[in-house]
Amino acid sequence: MTEQTRALPLVLTPPKGRGKPPRHLADLDAAERKAAAEAMGEPAFRVKQVATHYFGRLERDPAQMTDLPAASRDRIVESLLPPLLTSVRTMEADGGTTRKTLWRLFDGALVESVLMRYPDRATICVSSQAGCGMACPFCATGQGGLQRNMSTAEIIDQVVDGAAAMARGLVPGGPGRLSNVVFMGMGEPMANYKAVIGAVRRMVAPAPDGLGMSARNITVSTVGLVPRMRQLAGEGIPVTLALSLHAPDDELRNELVPINTRFSVAETVEAAWEYARTTKRRVSIEYAMMRDINDQAWRADMLADVLNSYGDWGWVHVNLIPLNPTPGSKWTASRPEDEREFVRRLVAKGIPTTVRDTRGSDIDGACGQLAAADA
Prior knowledge:
This protein has helices spanning 3-6, 30-40, 44-56, 73-80, 140-143, 152-167, 193-204, 226-233, 250-256, 265-279, 297-308, 336-348, and strands spanning 86-93, 98-104, 110-117, 122-125, 129-131, 146-149, 180-183, 218-222, 240-244, 283-289, 316-322, 353-355. The chain is α/β, with parallel strands linked by helices and 375 residues long. A 10-stranded mixed beta sheet has the order 1-2-3-4-7-8-9-10-11-12, with helices on one face.
């Protein structure tokens, strides 16, 4: 690896010059909701009525909000629920149980979300940024660069859309409930911390203040922004933390995950362990398997030793991810026999390990493939 690779700049803040998304109900706390009602010249309970429709009934159509006065219904809803996401297209895979939607934001930025229905659950993978500034070379999103952070409401609107699709039977299998949210779409969630935590709080708050989801069914991923990982541990919200590690040694991880030049493997894993110790929630270690790059048996032993150095009390679980192809990439998935040996080595050292069930790779909707191409 060259010194030029080590010095690769990371974009942790979005470019300047873009306006802010319209203010939305999901952006507002209790005091701001009251102020919004006063600004509209409406009693405070009007905002609660709209919130009941949006969070409780997953409804955004003013025509369905018949408890609002007809003369001012459109004005109230337009003020509190301005359109944030415009669907460009939806692609389906796995018999329609995997749905990838390309969204255009108010300023023309493009993001994607992926809704996946399984026999026992339904999960939506949401984006937290338009693009990503982490520059991981094997990830299509990272290669596109960062455009901007998304707002709390832009994140929540992806979840509401997925929940509504499930509730209304738009996904094969009949009406159902959205049970899980993973921040594994476009962007580095910890680099948009305030909006992401705001979205998590809206997800777990009971209706009409939020969606009433279980924090244990929400996963926040990160490539290892250590200060934010520590901050998350103190939030008092027991979400699952997923650390995208991808290599157990600094030399390789510096190349695969450039933020590692700021926060080493040791610092990053220690922050993950501190999260587990504080929250009593098991951390997931995400590890994309790349042929002849990070899938050697000796690296499995090294990974196990790194994780076991913090104790064997079950604080961690390794989730191996078969690398998904991206156009023009030199990176390819591991051979099946190498993947099996990697699993065997980890398990032999007492590390619970699974291999991720890849969904949506044929529609570029799998992990590392989201690029929001409007073509």
